[in-house]
Amino acid sequence: MPGMVRKQFYVEPRQDALLKQRAKELGTTEAELVREALDAYASKAVMPRLDPAAWQREKAFIEALTGKVSLATDRRKARMAKDTEGAQAPEAAKAREDAKAKRGWTRDELHER
Q1: pLDDT for 57-94, tens place per residue?
Q2: What does the alpha-carbon distance between residue 4 and residue 38 come to, in Å, rounded to a whole number?
Q3: 29 close to 23: Cβ distance less than 8 angstroms
């Protein structure tokens, strides 16, 4: 087996049974099925890198919209405002208020109907 690297891993009993069954049906080895599955997964599985800071900013924005602001969020907002020197904060608040005024309803009100 030149060019191969030996790997050992654990599978659940149901996966073991499935692997054995498929290998028998296809007339191939379990190892070949695992290699094919890895190749198929690797060719399709392109996961974007997540930016935790972006998620925190999004959470703070949603909490500001819903009025559910926690102490931790207040601290994060203060840090973010300090980092950006509050340049966009007043504009964003005004945009949220304008949107709410134009809409005339809240999500909760829609669900109560």
Answers
A1: 888 888 888 776 555 556 666 666 665 555 556 677 77
A2: 14
A3: yes
